[in-house]
Design goal:
By secondary structure, the chain is of the alpha+beta class. It is built from twelve helices and nine strands. The chain has helices at 2-19, 36-48, 55-59, 61-85, 91-102, 107-116, 121-142, 149-158, 179-190, 195-202, 224-230, 264-294, and strands spanning 25-29, 32-35, 164-165, 168-176, 213-218, 242-244, 247-257, 260-261, 297-299.
Length: 306
């Protein structure tokens, strides 16, 4: 009947309008809003780590936005669970985390750094408290995970080669976009500037805030362009400019550790730690997947399609 079809269409339109989210809302998670402004800020924070976006990432920006939103949704689910469990950092834990982040930075320098990042001291404090809350939740969820002696024995029996530790190098890097920038940085360092200070000033790599320190690594753990230089470079000497798909690099070898055979006790302790970390990560992933499956999540498709 025509009137029945009209009624069905009218009800469908009402339902569609009722499900549409306001423009200032990116998603709603179990009744809690994720604001569009929060999504935009998170996307900016992610993309600015790359400086000028490479063309490949520009093309993938819609997928990047969706990925960032999914992480914000996960965060809301985790914070809600922490609230239900009464989990939050103590004032002492929060102050310790903030002090570690500052690393002795004077107050004026901290304010300038926060302003450059588009935030303020109170927002920084809230973000640190949120991150600590999530860390404590993850620890609580993984607390029941254990590694048995039988699991340990079985893994070691299958991986006898793990007794041998390869040679490792601890190195720092500076990453810039152009060869000219890298050459100028090398000139400054050879003229007496600190490699770490130059890295903090100009390097585009995420390790820049650590003075470019990559930590210890063995052959094959880094791109081949890295290995070809650092495993032959004398300790304390700045490399020539090195090109890679990421840009142009300078390297400095800080330390070397020769290969050796681990003792039985050391092997068991290291393997236990690695297995425990893997099982805890898997337990948390399972919890998060189950929590998402039961949650009510609504997306603003005009902001994040499909």
């Amino acid at each position: 009947m025509p009137w029945m079809r009209a009624l069905v269409l009218f009800v469908a339109l009402l339902l569609a309008c009722g499900c549409r989210l306001p423009r200032d809302t990116a998603a709603v998670v179990d009744g809690r809003r994720i604001e569009a402004a929060e999504l935009e800020a998170a996307v900016r924070a992610f993309t600015t780590t790359f400086g000028q976006l490479p063309p490949a990432l520009e093309r993938e920006l819609p997928r990047v936005r969706r990925g960032v939103l999914e992480r914000l949704i996960d965060r809301e689910l985790m914070l809600a669970e922490a609230g239900r469990r009464g989990i939050r950092p103590t004032p002492a834990e929060l102050e310790k985390a903030l002090a570690t982040t500052r690393e002795g930075m004077p107050s004026k320098e901290l304010e300038a750094t926060l302003a450059e990042a588009g935030t303020d001291r109170e927002s920084w404090r809230r973000a640190a408290e949120r991150d600590l809350t999530i860390e404590k939740l993850q620890a609580a969820i993984a607390a029941a995970v254990t590694v048995s002696e039988q699991e340990l024995d079985a893994w070691i029996a299958r991986h006898r080669d793990q007794r041998e530790l390869p040679e490792e190098v601890r190195a720092s890097q500076i990453l810039v976009r152009t060869e000219a920038e890298a050459s100028e940085a090398r000139r400054r360092i050879l003229g007496g500037a600190s490699f770490a200070d130059v890295a903090r000033e100009i390097s585009l790599s995420p390790d820049a805030d650590r003075g470019g320190d990559l930590g210890y690594f063995a052959r094959g753990q880094m791109p081949p362009e890295f290995d070809a230089v650092v495993f032959t470079l004398p300790r304390g000497q700045t490399s020539e400019v090195v090109g890679s798909p990421y840009g142009f690099h300078l390297f400095l070898v800080l330390d070397r550790r020769p290969g050796r055979t681990r003792t039985e006790a050391e092997l068991r302790a290291n393997v236990r730690t690695a297995l425990l970390a893997g099982k805890r990560e898997e337990a948390f992933k399972t919890w998060l997947a189950n929590t998402r499956a039961k949650a009510s999540i609504k997306y603003n498709r005009s902001l994040v399609p499909g």
